[in-house]
Structure formats: structure tokens, C-alpha cells
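Hi support team,

I'm opening this ticket because the web form for multi-chain structure prediction keeps timing out on my end. I have pasted the exact lines I submitted so you can reproduce it. The total is 713 residues across two entries, so I didn't expect it to be a heavy job. Is there a limit I'm missing, or should I split the entries? Thanks in advance, R.K.
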Amino acid sequence: FLHLASSIWKWGPRDIRGLSRTVAPEGSQRKGRALLQFLADHFYDVEALREYLFRKQVLKVHQKNRSFTHIKEQYGPYIAGAYFVLKQGGAVKFQGQEWMQSNGRGRFSLDFFKFQAVPVEAVDASGCAINYQGLDNLLALKELQSLSLQRCPHVDDWCLSRLHQLAGSLQELSLAGCPQVSERGLACLHHLQKLRRLDISDLPAVSNPGLTRILVEEMLPNCEVLGADWAQGLKLGPEEQS
Amino acid sequence: MKCVAFSPQLHPTDWDGKVSDIKKKIQSVLPGGAWNPLYDTSHLPPEHSDVVIVGGGVLGLSVAYWLKRLEKRRGAIQVLVVDRDYTYSQASTVLSVGGIRQQFSLPENIQLSLFSVDFLRNINEYLAVVDDPPLDLQFNPLGYLLLASEKGAAIMENNVKVQRQEGAKVCLMSPEQLRNKFPWINTEGVALASYGLENEGWFDPWCLLQGLRRKVQSMGVRFCHGEVTRFISSSDRMETASGEEVTLKRIHEVHVKMDRSLEYQPVECAIVINAAGAWSGQIAELAGIGKGPPGTLQGTKLPVEPRKRYVYLWHCPQGPGLETPFVTDTSGTYFRREGLGNNYLGGCSPTEEEEPDPGNLEVDHDFFQDKVWPHLAQRVPAFESLKVRSAWAGYYDYNTFDQNGVVGPHPLVVNMYFATGFSGHGLQQAPAVGRAVAEMVLEGHFQTINLNPFLFSRFYLGEKVEERNII
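Hello R.K., no limit was hit. The queue was backed up. Here is the completed structure from your submission:
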């Protein structure tokens, strides 16, 4: 029983997508996955345990994205937003200051608390577990000019539909490598009329990257769109095919 | 096998007939005969079920989901969902255009829609099943754009105020702002427009249906492919406080007939939920609702009937781009973008006189030529050259009284609950309505969203709750 429990614990706290059958596991992982599926199909206890572990993962993400109302009330939205980003492991740049980031262990100095009236200019939240709720903290930064959400696993089309609140200031946006962003979310970026640089490379959920890039360029005429080469989707002509 | 009792009044010639009957029965019991007591009943529904939900579309499945989710102990309630078509070929859910908006005028509708959008956003937390892939609803968060003429501008402003109070993110646009934002619109005749900025758009209803089905099966709900043909109920005569006599009915058995056969199974049940969509009126008649002198509570029918609506898919190479919202014109015509290839979906609700016959789901292409295209071309000049690719028709579960849903128990047939009659916005309110009906069944009153204005009694009392539509 302990061996069983330990094998379940090993596979438990992994990414939500790891629980799905579509993710192709390799080798011994596949045998372990098949064993877990067999057990969940035949024993209610195992199913309940796995559901419990899944719920715990979800709650962990929610906990990371809670809003810091106390800090917001006391120090203002800029400090609260900066604190949120630093806590998640991202980097923040105040106007006229250098980039600030937490070190490898998640520690960071709190001297930015004196910059209460200084707006935040740029946020680099690459790889952070920001989701729809957590975006509240970023949307309060009304003078944000550059936002990087590269490789964020929980940023999806719903999150993009909220970015219209930053339309007054946002000039640079990077969504490269976000697994849940599709062309439907990119379509809501038409509100961001001040956008000058948009990076949409390497988006696996976009069905037709080349066509999407053309349509996004038409939608945002003043913006430079990077990534998603439009020649990608074209088939080779008869003379080019060897 | 029946036993024949000896009766002194039997005529001598009758006795001969009875003897040959007995002989036939004995022959059928012997091996090789027709009597087969142990036969396969796996296709039949169970003999008892606490709740029977008539109709397996999005509303029925939503009620099943919330009943199982809000039950106090795991496995406390046995739910059976009965649907006569497992291919959903005529179900309104899958033939729907899939839009969701908060731009209503009634606060209850706005709250229902807000909760439903919350549900859809977190669908992979609500409907997660161990070992199954996460759902991709294909949600397009592009918002609804409602256009109003001079006459409707005041109503629209009022509506937007109510929507903002409830928490919807809507903004008003003047004709110049419209032209700046969407240069392909011709703003002639438009005085004001309301544009939903967040939480509005369209999604894939089939995915929601499959997700609900899968989750609900994993929670232990039984499905049955059959048709409800009869309700057996028992009545009780009671006196109200003012001394009038009232007959209260309680359904205690539902007869479910199997497809293409005369076989039926009587299912003993405690509660029946009518989520039959366009055919809810027929189910209500089976239960005896509306059988009485007109003008009385017994004589008030459920005013839900099927109405046919057409949806057309066309291609327009110079049409509006990626940012096109779901546009609803002043004339009632609507359209939205579909996919990335310059394809658009749209249609129009016909007036009362032009209502097509709901007997079948055949499409009338002349309706597009005469009634839809002129308005489309007038509003979006690029649509003057378009080519219709395909079209289909679906039913609205149209509430002829006030075009809003019916939720909650019937005052006389005390254990029949309704979740129907939403007249075209059932899909977008389904998760919230499911929760409301489950709360009503389990607790006896609405807890989260107060849907008391949508109870059945308003048909008898004559209190219409109408949407103030913008012309």
C-alpha cells in the first residue's frame, strides 16, 4: 500500500495537463500512467484521491494569484502590482529605475516600497503562474508600457480579453510560447491601439499561424508583429518541390 | 401468468375457452415456448430513480450536474436523464449560434449570464474528469455590438446603466466612435451602440454539451435513450385558506418508451424536471398541466412552443476583419465572424406573421434573399457581394407569453420543475439556471440568484417579465 501511495504522490503534484490522456508519456512514465488509469477506473478510493490531488493543484494556482488588497490600500496600486510580480518570480521596472527581480530562492528586497508615486513602466512575467484573477494586479498599472507574458502556462484567451484596460499606455506585448493562447484571444488585442511591438511566435494553440499573423497585422496597422512567419503555412509550389 | 378463478356465473361454453387458454399458457412455459421471464433489460432505464430529467440538452444536463454537485452526501440522489434522440439532431443546443452576452435589460438575466460566463471560464475546474483531456470551448471573447436607432437610444442607455450596476463591462459608443473603431459599418440610422468589452462572445455549444455529459456520467447520473409517454400521478383534494378547493397532483411514475418499439419501462420517481426544450409544452400537457377551464390555474398551459429559426453561413472576401464582434442591427438582423477564412454566420428573427412552420427543419433560402441580405448589405456595404455557403435551422423553445425562461415548480403538479422556455438565450444561461433549479429542488428556494419573477405562477397572474428590446 505504501508503495502505491508513494507512486501516486510522485505523479500527483504535476501540471494539470499531466493528468490528461492526450499528453504522450514516455517509457516507464507510460506504464505508471496506465497503472493509475486502471486503478482510477476500478476503485472509487483511487479516483477520489486523484480528484483531491487535482483540486489541490488548482488551489495552489489560485493561492498564488490572490490579490494583495492590504498592500494595495496602504501603498497604492504600483507597489501592489510590483510586489505581486516579484512574488511570482518575475521582474519589474519602475520609471527611471533599474530592473528588479527576485533571486533564485524567491527572495527580493522590499526597498521598492518607497516608490509609491512612481509608476511601473515594464513588467516581465515570463514563466509565471499568472491567471485571470492575478491579472487584476497588473491591470491596475495604468502607465505600463511593456508587458511580457512569455511561456505563462495559465494565460489564455480570457486573460487577453482583459488587456483592453491597458489600451492607453501599452506599447510592447510579448505572448511567445503561451500554450493556451489562440487566434481568438489575439483578436481581442484590437483595443490596444498604442501597441508598437507584438510578439506572437511559437503559439501552439493557434491553428493557422501564417494567416493569423496577416490578419493581426491588418487589425493593428501601426504595430510591428514578430513571429509566425507568414510563409510558414504555404505549401511548396511544383517547381520548388524536389 | 394468470390463474383463472372459479366463478359460479360462468357459462358452460365460456369454460371451454378458458381451458384452451390454460393449455396455451402451459405450452408457452415449457421449453421452446414464447414465455421468457429472464430477458435482457440493460437497454431499459432503472425501475426507480429519485429525479427524472426529461430532456438531455444543455439545460437538462446542467440541472443534473448541479444536483449531483450540491447534494449533501456523495451518491445521495439518483438522477436519470431521458432523451429520445441520442444524436441530438434536432436539439436546440447544438444548432445554436453559441453566443453569450450580458446585454439584457432584466437584472436577473444579467446575473444568470454573468455566472454562466464565470462557469465557462473555469470550465476545466468545474467539469474536470480524472484522466480526460481538458475542454477547449473555442471561446471568442469579442463582445456583442448592439445598434440602436433614435427610438431605441433611451432604452439602450437605461439598459446599459442596469448592466453596469450588475457588474457587466459594457460601453456606449456614438456613431463617430463606431466609424473610427469599425470602419466597415455604415452608421446611417444608428443613434447609439452598446459594445460589450469583456465576458461576451461566442463558443462551441457541442463542446459544452459533451463536457457536461462526460462529467455527469462520471458523477453517477444514468442516461436513457427513450421517450416519455405517460405520467402516472396521484391527486389530493385540499382546501386553501380562503376555502376554495384545490387539486394537488404528485407524479409518482414516468413511463419511458423505447425507441422504435412498444416496450416501455415505468420509472418510479420523486421529482420530474421538464427540460425538454422546444417540446416542453407537450410534456407539460402529458402531466395534465392546462387541462381545466381557461382562466383558472388548472387551465393555464405552459406557453412554450417550438419556433423555427434559420442560420446562414456565407463567405465574403472583402468582409470585416478579425476584430468583428457579434453585431445586432437595428432591424433585428445579426451576424458574427466564423473562423479565419472570411466566413460569417447570421440570421434574423422573423416577425409574427412570417413565422415558418415548425413541423420540420427545412431551410427557406428565399428568407435570406428577401429579409436578411438587404439589411446586412445596408449595414455593412462589403456584404453586398457575398455567397451563401450553407444554412441550417433550429428550434427556439419559444415562450409565447414573455420570451423569458420558466424556472421552478408548478403550483398544482407539485413535483414537476421547469427549466425551459428561454426563447433563444437558453444556452448562455444554462449553467446558472441549472444551479438555480438544483437549489430549488434541494433547498426549496433560490439561494444565489433570485429567479422568483420566472416562476410558473406568472402565467396565471398575468405578470409579464419582458426584455425591453431595442428596436
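A quick check on our side: Confidence is low (pLDDT under 50) at residues 3-23 of chain A. Let us know if the file doesn't open in your viewer.
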